[in-house]
Write a structure and sequence with these properties.
The protein is an all-alpha fold and about 250 residues long. The chain is built from nine helices and no strands. The chain has one domain. The radius of gyration is 26 Å and the shape is rod-shaped.
Length: about 250
């Protein structure tokens, strides 16, 4: 499903356009209705400073949320590589034919997990389908071997394969866990209000409006950074499957 928070560049362009328009509207349109005889500039500065401070706090909290999710994806990628490596080693405890089958399946499964972290969003459904097929085949193979040899040694092998399947589910869940849309709506609303007040409160708008557009640019870059960190496979900053790639090289 197409969602805006999976496209940080679009968020940057949209926020830059909207916030610059807010500054211009506040300075060029709303200033015309300002009644100078009732204008208390000190009170306005107080409200404006409070709004900007609130915007900064919410941006900080949102950035912290995105960074926490990014760190979680890194940890889960490492856990997934460790689980696959452990299951690969435990396959030596199985009979030779069944063990070799499990090892080949784990090699193919590792390749698909690397693709999960590297492909674009549009190319992800075929990867998920192949991963699901390999999971079913892998579990069927180990379950068949366990039914023929129901002992504690085989239970260790089954536990290792089960950990492989469990870590994949947690990694998939972490890729879906992003900043909620209401948080983005709140950020956008406060940012628009803050930029309206910046344009409205400017002592001189015409001839000095260039410096007022610095704030929308800075906020838009911040929004882009938050969305980029929060998006698993879009933008510039991504979780690189270094552990899975190293594991694949060792399995070869």
């Amino acid at each position: 499903m197409w969602t805006l928070n999976n496209h940080p560049f679009y968020i940057f362009l949209l926020s830059l356009t909207g916030l610059c328009a807010a500054v211009w509207f506040g300075g060029a349109i709303l200033r015309r209705y300002k009644r100078h005889e009732n204008w208390v500039y000190e009170d306005f500065i107080l409200v404006q400073t409070t709004t900007l401070t609130l915007l900064g706090l919410i941006i900080g909290f949102t950035f912290s949320m995105a960074l926490e999710r990014f760190d979680q994806r890194i940890v889960l990628e490492e856990a997934e590589a460790n689980a696959i490596g452990t299951a690969y080693l435990r396959a030596d405890l199985m009979p030779k034919t069944e063990g070799e089958e499990i090892r080949q399946l784990l090699k193919a499964y590792t390749a698909e997990r690397i693709l999960f972290y590297t492909v674009e969003l549009d190319a992800l459904p075929p990867v998920r389908l192949r991963t699901h097929t390999l999971q079913q085949t892998l579990w069927s193979s180990v379950a068949r071997a366990a039914s023929l040899q129901p002992d504690p040694v085989m239970a260790i092998v089954v536990t290792g394969v089960n950990d492989v399947l469990s870590t994949e589910g947690r990694s998939q869940g972490a890729s879906w866990n992003q900043i909620p849309k209401p948080a983005w709506y709140l950020l956008a609303a406060i940012a628009i209000c803050a930029n309206l007040m910046v344009g409205f409160g400017a002592r001189k708008f015409k001839g000095h409006q260039e410096i007022l557009f610095i704030l929308p640019i800075v906020i838009s870059i911040t929004f882009f950074l938050i969305a980029d960190i929060d998006s698993p496979r879009s933008g510039v900053i991504r979780v690189a499957p270094k552990n899975l790639i190293t594991l694949m090289q060792s399995l070869q």
